[in-house]
Amino acid sequence: QVQLVESGGGLVQAGGSLRLSCAASGDTFNSYSMGWFRQAPGKERDFVAVISWGGSRTYYQASVKGRFTISRDNAKNMVYLQMNSLKPEDTAVYYCAKDRSRLRAGATAVADFESWGQGTQVTVSS
Predict the structure, then answer these.
(1) Residues 37, 8, 63: CA angle, nearest 5 degrees
(2) Is pLDDT above 90 for 28?
């Protein structure tokens, strides 16, 4: 079973940048796609980005495409989310999670993921 711990959140002004990190412990990390999701107050948890197990394929929610970049370092069991040009509507708790299925790419539904971390708060002020 993989355990995930997110970090890197904080308060930033609109137009600023943050880099989120997700540390994974446990085995077989490099056989699974990893995703970032976010949940704003009073809203459902939404897909942000996903990266395939080897890192060659990435998928993004339309509203973050071109501003956010997901990456991973399998040697370090880490997943990252570089967030640039942040907007107030990006304010949310950000979670990383592991795809339920081994060697599957492109899944984006919350139900397709497991082993959720505790989340890290990102607040973008206008």
Answers:
(1) 35
(2) no
Q: How far is CA 5 from CA 8, 15, 65, 73, 83, in A?
A: 10, 26, 24, 15, 18
Please name the residue that has the structure tokens 């592991």: 98
pLDDT, residue 108, reads: 96
Q: Which residue has the tokens 């897909």?
A: 47
Question: Residues 6 or more apart from 50 whose CB is under 8 A from it?
Answer: 33, 34, 35, 36, 58, 59, 70, 99, 105, 106, 107, 108
Question: Which of 75, 79, 90, 86 has the alpha carbon at shortest distance from 21?
Answer: 79
Scanning the structure block, which residue is given the tokens 């990252």?
80
Residue 114 tokens, joined: 């497991």
Beta pairing class for 34-39 and 46-51: antiparallel
**Residues facing 113 on adjacent strands:** 99
3-state class (DSSP) for residue 87: coil
